[in-house]
Amino acid sequence: MSKPTLKIEQVRVEIDRVDKALLGLIAERLELAGAVRRAKSGARVWRPSREESHVRELAEATEDTPAELVSRIWAELMSASLALQGPMKLHIALEGDALEVWSLVRDRFGAAIPAMSYPTASSALAAAYGDDEGVAVLPAPGGMNSWWTALGAKGAMPDMHILAGLPRTGDSGWPRAVAVSTADIQPSGNDQTLLVCSDYSHINGAVLRAEAGDHKLISLDGYIETAPERAKIIGVLPKPMKLT
User: pTM of whole model > 0.85?
Assistant: First the structure.
């Protein structure tokens, strides 16, 4: 039996009801975000692996809502929550098309987290490294950029890690930008592990992503805790959610 057709006035009343319910739930979520910060007792604010797995689970649970819409909605919700939880700051390298970079950042991190921009990847990375809760948004490794060599075993910032790709959704196997911080490397459930080495001929399944002198950046499918011989793990990239 088909559902009865509602008059436009009835539809508007129902929309208003849903909107008010949504606002109430958002307010409740933000209050819980404040409770999370109080319970963390000094733990890091940004947990990218937890965030990625949560958004993926939500997208998979909603048959009628596109994954990109779920990602954007939760980017804003997480942005507001993270801004309440602590002093997280984005340090953004505006190399290339600045408008595209800002669009990628907005879609992935929302608008509430404080952000600063820099003309080069190296300056953004250095600023994030000097900031306890700093996250650098940098062009994805490849081409002429070599900032990622600083994350290697003999680099200047070996405790920095590549932890997220931008955009979060799409069909590409490699992101346009990445987020880097000193947060711990943790699995999201659907990842590729990133390693720096000088020779990867002995590493099965390695995919070359970038080169800079003797340094080679490779990816291995899945989450790997122990690096192969003569290689260093410098990050893990959650694979993008497929567009629907």
Answer: yes
CB 49 within 8 A of CB 188: yes
Tell me how long the chain is: 244
Give the model confidence (pLDDT) of 31-80 as tens digits.
887 777 676 666 678 889 999 999 999 998 887 889 999 999 999 999 99
Amino acid identity for residue 239 in this structure: K
Rounded Cα gap, residues 49 and 186, in angstroms: 6
Distance CA 244, CA 241 (A): 9
Strand order in the sheet with 115-118: 115-118, 89-93, 134-139, 177-181, 161-166, 231-238, 191-197, 215-221, 207-212
Beta bridge partners of 222: 192
Q: Which of 206, 204, 183, 202 is nearest to 194 (CA)?
A: 206
Backbone angles phi, psi at 194, to 5 degrees: -110, 135
User: Contact, 91 vs 130, CB < 8 A?
Assistant: no
Cα separation values, 128 from 118, 148, 183, 243, Å: 11, 14, 11, 31
Q: Cβ atoms within 10 A of the Cβ of 20, count?
A: 10
CA distance 190 to 74: 19
Q: What span, in angstroms and rounded, lies between the C-alpha atoms of 120 and 125?
A: 9
